[in-house]
């Protein structure tokens, strides 16, 4: 019998369908912000929250939370995801050799990039995941995302929204202080999140409108050992049993330093794939960030003894996109 247990030991590991369903129903936010809503939990960010976040800035130091966008990235072709392909269309060589049709000696360089929108640091949009053919807010998936893109909840709707108080929970540092890295397959529970908040102190409190940043240390290991299976492989991540915590905390969004946000392998003994995504995105309306870089941020936070920052992480306003590359920045 499935329940809303927050203890992974209580999961029915033979029945992901039931475990997903009970949480999807319990934590569903459909209609909470009206029938036409395109933002989901990003609605928790209001002007007052941004003023609060701006008040955290005293030094002007900026830390980028983005990985690189280049051919040396982690993608291995899963679901046709490749690393960015950067192509130059005009170069300094062209300018030197007079191959550009410009007057009075002026020359220039131009380039373009070809890449999946979710190949490096990115947001999952609300049109990215469906639950039994249903998209965010109870809409039919086929009415939302077509060959023309996401007609309802495209990431462009969030272009001026995602600026808020960011809170780093360095769960890896808290649970594995010797290494600062969690083992693959470790499911971060609600109890773990609460314990990390207590250990880090008042600046780690998490509430309405905050953007939660969870460090597992997986990216640090990839930097040391090579990408290997960083994209799509096993990793620590959020446990499906923490879905209730994510819901009641009223966070606006969450991001991790892993490819998949949730723990991998997923917490079942039968075939399952990203069950927490299925609960969080189409039912809860939660925006999810993946492959963020928290290593420098973690050092900066630990040195200051504070774990909250002004966070700016707007998506590119790509009309109808179900995800977006970003360069999120934390400002102290």
UniProtKB/TrEMBL annotation:
It holds the Pfam family Cyclase. Gene3D superfamilies: Putative cyclase. It comes from the Bacteria. One of its GO terms (molecular function) is arylformamidase activity. One of its GO terms (biological process) is L-tryptophan catabolic process to kynurenine. This is Cyclase family protein. It comes from Microbacterium hatanonis.
